Amino acid sequence: MSSHLVPEPSPLGWSLDHSYARLPTQFYSRVQPTPVAKPQLVLFNKALACSLGLDASTLSLPESAALFAGNQLPAGADPIAQAYAGHQFGNLTRLGDGRAILLGEQMTPSGERWDIQLKGPGPTPYSRQGDGRAALGPMLREYLISEAMQALGIPTTRSLAVVSTGEPVFRQKTLSGAVLTRVAASHIRVGSFVLFAALDDRESLRILTDYTLQRHFPHLGKIEPHQGLNGDSTPNPVLGLLEAVIESQSFLIAHWMRVGFVHGVMNTDNMALSGETIDYGPCAFIDTYDPDAVFSSIDHQGRYAFGNQPQIAAWNLARFAEALLPLLHPEPDQALALARRTLDTFPLRFEQHKLTLMRAKLGLFTEAPSHSNLIDDLLHWMQSTRADFTHTFRTLDPRLLANGSAPNLADPVFLAWHQRWTVALANQPQTSHAVEARMRANNPAVIPRNYQVELALADATLHSDLTRFNRLLAAVTRPYEESNQPQEFINPPPPGTPHCPTFCGT
Asked: pLDDT tens, 103-117?
């Protein structure tokens, strides 16, 4: 990839390369966006545009709506829809970009490579009788939540723009159409590998593995031609790729659990090898702490419940390892042994990341065996009392015992826990100011609470009023700050607030 000449930036800053489109055609289909009637720019991310090397001032003007809707193409675009498969609720399905088109890979002034993808620009060869369109509400949700995740310090795809199309989309009811411009380190998925494993296309697996190594893990080296395909036992970096993806996913899922994020649709086509959170369909953040919390309207069995996310990640990673078996070792038994041994590291990696992050939430700098029980006991108390996850952590303060003003001190279980916690803090050398700073930096004051998100989306989609949406966006992109934040976005939901199911948005 690095040897290919990247074009000089256009006047608007577009510098699009097409490394994925230089792969063989079984990996994608060339396709053009379908023009829409009356595109209007709804949201534009100036800060992200600047980081990409784009002319944010010009691209934020109303006339840029035609570009972000797909009516026009940026300089140097070569649109494709990517092919992949996915285990949807555990069932293997052949998929592909049914309502997304990759315009190219923006090369930033610092040499970074970012996919620029349109979501909702019309049908592709993978649409499966779908219209290839997206509705305004789900695209606004993705913009809001992905920017919140970025501000929370969690690896994520980003949103550059949302454009309304002036056309309806028909689901259970008629909705306003929209196109979102998504920015990602790449759109290589576990499902990308699953497709060619299902087809028993080993050469395509080798090509895709080598491409992924070069793009995301160049330090692991390259696969030599025909390596592992003809009994050649020459060492290869495929095992390193599996280890790297397991590590990045254990880190990512631990961060989800840190802030109470529920992805909602953890199919294998929604696990990105870049380690980013991708696809914000039926996602939400928990209010009261509940490992069984489900928001997706179609997840009737709780497969993707909040507390199940580590186990589902491990399941998805096992599917990735299965796809890599032909390249891991020429002897099937040895390949399987390598895969199992490596997959077995996921639980420990996840628990280590989770413990590190939860220690930070409690202001703990040192490591002690008792910390694990301390964390688990707090979570069990929160579950039994239906305490608000975010608010409980944000309001923890060891000094409150002294003046008796700590919330929940009337609860003897919490009081006993609080005393154990203050002892743990006293056994470390850091000052109380350092403890407070650590907790403030790891416990958000504001998250995009689902009921607030729904209110903002209702105003935007039903009344064309973005006032509440923009206020909420401003708040969740400063999640660790309390000053000058609207109290309504900090407080837990009022009593009696109904549970709001979420939808995939397809």
From this structure: 999 999 999 999 999
